[in-house]
Structures are given as C-alpha cells and as structure tokens.
Amino acid sequence: MAKLTAVPEGDDGPMAVLVEDYLTSCKARGLSPNTLKNSYGYPLRKVLLPFCEREGITDAAGLTSRALDRLAGHLMDEGGERGALSRHSVHAYIRAINHFLAWAKKEGEPVQAKAQLPRLPKAVLQVLTREEIQSMEDKATSERDKLIVRTLADTGVRVGELVRLRTGDLVSQGRQHYLQIAGRSQGGGAKGDRSRLVPIPRLYPRLRRYADRGRPKDVTSDRLFISLKRRPESAGGAYEPLTESGVQQLIRNLAATVGIRRRVYPHLLRHSYITWAIRRGMHPVQIRQIVGHESTAMIDRVYSHLVPQDAYAATVKMLSDDHDQ
Questions:
Q1: Would 113 be classed as within a structural domain?
Q2: CB 4 within 8 A of CB 13
Q3: What is the CATH number for 157?
Q4: pLDDT value at position 75?
Q5: Which among 97, 136, 234, 313 has most CB atoms closer than 10 A?
C-alpha cells in the first residue's frame, strides 16, 4: 500500500462530510479544542480519509473488517504522513476511528465493522512517592510554587484545570472545603465541560490565605495562580495568569533540583495522587468523582502497576477490620 497522504482541504465527499459531522458532534459534547484537534480530528482527517481515498471507499459501509485490518497493518508497518508510528500511536488512532464508527452506526449509517486494536505492552507507571513530592515542595522558593506542587499532589487535578482556577473556586460548605473545578463553558478547565467539587480539607487554609493575601496586591485577574513578575511596561505591565507551560517547567525544574532523575511532569502528580488514594483504600468510584474520570474503566486500565504487596496489605486490613467488629 502506498504512503498515506492528507486529503486536500475542501474535500466534501460523503466520508469527509460524515467525519466533519462527527467532529461537530464531539464539539457539541464539550470536548476541549486540543482533544478535538489531536485525539479525534487528526486520526480521522489525516489517517482515515486518506486511506479511504486510496482504497476507493466512498461511504461508511465500505469500512469492512478487512479494510480496517489493512489500515491498522499499514500503520504498523509503514507509519503515517509524519513517519513511523509507535504501537501506542496506532492504538490511539484506531480507537478514535472506532469511536467514529460507533457514532456513525448510532446515526443510522450502514456500519457493521469495528477495527481491531493492536495489543499494547503493559506500561509500569513510575509514580512519585509522598517523600519525593514533599522534597519538591520544600525546595520551591515561593508559597505560590509550594501550593502548585501540593495542589497537584493532593487533589489530582489536571494542569489545565489548575491554571484556570479562580479565587472564587475555593468553596466552603459548612465545615467542608472544596476546590470547584469549573467546566470550560464556565471559564474553567474541566475536561468534557464536567464541573466537580474536589475535597481539600487540609489544603484549604493555605489556599485561602494565599488567595486573600499572597497574590500581588494590584493584580487585576481573578485567576488563583499568577505570574511572579509583571509584564514589561511596553506590554501593559500587568501580572498575567500562570500558563500550563509555566507549570510544566516549574515541576520539571523542581524535580531536577531535588535529584529525581526520571521524567517528572504535572500529570505524573495526578497519577501519583490516584495511586496513593488506591493504596490508602479509597473506593474507585470516589476517586473517579474527585479526579473527573467518566468511569472507573480508566482506573482499572492505567493503575495496574500496583504491586502484589498492595493487594496483600489491603487483604490484611480487610480481615483486621472484620475481626474488630
């Protein structure tokens, strides 16, 4: 099979129209622009449509099991327009195509096939220990940076959610305290536009104090985490909200400073939080609600790195609790 090349812009064949209808549906569901473009748009526009054009497939009915197997095999052997592809990339592309096919079938298109997903090797997450996280917080030179580390570590929020927090997102309900993770339609960063409340019983006093007295006095933005320095006077001289790239650089630098040699990034603190919560006995449904997963399937799939000793300790605790009753 020849190398896949992108379908020219403006292609309005039946398959291209169907793809654009699906992406419009995804947008209406509240998917973020980044997810829409990279996780769904690229596999469909730059992988599936060129394949259909090459194969002479003009409608969804032509995407048979054999055709989809040919596509998967080609991606594994030849790669895509950007070159060779990892097994994980092929898996992500085929998964996106399957989502599209499921939607098309639901919409009444004559779709019967489903692509086979390539098997992936079991990945082992090298999460951070609580001691490593504490050392990173201790090394941070400002209360803002300390709170960024601690908030990521003790709530499991995504970096996009963190940088879009506002001072009004610190919520008290009686004696219970929460971070409100607002959906994108409300100016927040919650994935899928699903707002949620994240418990912060210990962290709340520090965040409240920082929001009230720790931010620059003349800051005009209501974002919780603000840059430490003003922009140049020529650019307005204002304090700007912290960016995702700024948080990524901060976490990377702190990890390197304390001697953590493996790659450390904000999302690793999310993985570390979920791992810690599982090991402490929190129910997967509660974890899902706190971190904003759609279902517990993600937890089952990703957090298989928990070692046999974790299961043993959980069993001992369960039997001990039963004995005490």
A1: no
A2: no
A3: 1.10.443.10
A4: 93
A5: 136
Please report the pLDDT score of residue 213 as a whole number. 94
CA distance 303 to 295: 14
pLDDT at 7: 46
| Same domain for 273 and 151 | yes
Tokens of 199: 């418990």
Residues 298 and 172 in one domain: yes
Residues 159 and 254 in one domain: yes
In which domain, by residue range, is 78 found? 14-106
Q: Are residues 183 and 306 in the same domain?
A: yes
String of b and e for 38-61 (b: at least 16 CB within 10 Å)?
Answer: ebbbbbbbbbbbbbbbbeebeebe
Q: Please tell me whether residues 41 and 163 are part of one structural domain.
A: no
In a domain, 47, yes or no: yes
User: E strand or H helix at 172, and its extent?
Assistant: strand 170-173
Interatomic CA distance for residues 271 and 277, integer angstroms: 10
Residues 6+ apart with CB under 8 A from 181: 157, 161, 165, 169, 188, 189, 190, 195, 196, 197, 198, 292
Regions of the chain with pLDDT less than 70: 1-11, 122-124, 232-237, 298, 301-325
pLDDT of amino acid 84: 87
C-beta atoms surrounding 197 within 10 Å = 16
- What pLDDT was estimated at residue 294? 76
Number of structural domains in the chain: 2
